[in-house]
Write a structure and sequence with these properties.
By secondary structure, the chain is α/β, with parallel strands linked by helices. It has a single domain, classed as Spore Coat Polysaccharide Biosynthesis Protein SpsA, Chain A. It is 40% helix and 20% strand. Strands 1, 2, 3, 4, 5, 6, 7, 8 and 9 form a nine-stranded mixed β-sheet that branches. Strand 6 and strand 7 form a beta hairpin. Helix 9 crosses helix 10.
Length: 270
């Protein structure tokens, strides 16, 4: 069965990159899909590019940010499976066929896979894989670490009927909040060793913005808010809470890194 896949893309002034995202969807060679782009009234060449592709469903209007755009795109979607592709990223080949096969033959509610980091010239810099099965199987750990690259994430639309959705008060870590929300309701998420997508590193994306101290603090504060939403343990949302939260998150990432490298060593020696 060829399930309908809806790709939702929030966009704002990503005219330099968005055509790569659009073409990566077209080039999947998959018959049953739709691509929905919600643009925040871009002032660059984005709209001229969108008008070139008749298959797109798109709107362009001012919004409060990426979270609102994702909400709008979800409401417009009609597919059984949802994929979240940011405007400056793009898919690898044959992803939709792989996703359809897994949802048709297995019982997971959501899935994700490997992500390649590339520079502006599309040269691969590194690859992100899950550090350890412990990261994705432990509810306490999952509240600290955004373990799923959003561009590789596909999920059944029906889970949004179970009080799962986007929180408009979260404007920086909306991906972490969504995954924690899904995971807290015991939906089954599976990880696959498959190359799903390419995440482009450039001066305007969120990954680079995290390097500033101001955005680091925002990231930690939203992280605390997300943790408190899904946990009986509450962190104070002040300097003391930020220090504790960041320390635990850093410690867990170190553990994940060590476990991942230990598993690689074990596999090589066995």
């Amino acid at each position: 069965m060829v399930k309908k896949i809806s790709i939702i893309t929030p966009s704002y002034n990503q005219g330099k990159y968005i055509e790569d995202a659009i073409l990566s969807v077209i080039n999947q060679k998959y018959s049953n899909f739709e691509h929905i782009i919600v643009d925040g009234k871009s002032s660059d060449e984005t709209l001229d590019i969108l008008k070139k592709y008749e298959h797109l469903t798109w709107i362009s209007e001012k919004d409060s940010g990426q979270t609102e755009a994702l909400e709008k795109a979800m409401k417009l979607s009609s597919g059984e499976i949802i994929g979240w592709l940011n405007a400056d990223d793009y898919y690898a080949e044959n992803v939709f066929n792989f996703v359809n096969k897994q949802f048709s033959e297995n019982n997971q509610d959501a899935l994700y896979g490997n992500l390649n980091y590339v520079n502006k010239e599309k040269k691969i810099i590194s690859q992100r894989v899950s550090k350890s099965n412990y990261i994705i199987s432990n509810k306490f750990v999952s509240k600290f670490i955004c373990f799923i690259p959003s561009t590789t994430f596909f999920f059944k639309k029906e889970i949004f009927n179970n009080n799962v959705g986007f929180d408009r008060d979260i404007n920086y870590g909306m991906d972490k909040d969504l995954f924690a929300n899904i995971y807290s309701k015991n939906f089954l998420i599976k990880k696959f060793e498959f190359n799903f997508a390419y995440f482009r590193l450039h001066e305007d994306n969120k990954f680079e913005h995290k390097k500033s101290f101001k955005n680091f603090i925002i990231d930690c504060k939203e992280g605390i808010k997300i943790f408190n939403k899904y946990s009986n343990v509450k962190f104070p949302n002040n300097k003391f809470g930020i220090i504790i939260y960041f320390s635990i998150r850093f410690f867990l990432k170190v553990i994940g890194f060590c476990l991942f490298n230990f598993s690689l060593f074990k596999n090589k020696t066995s």
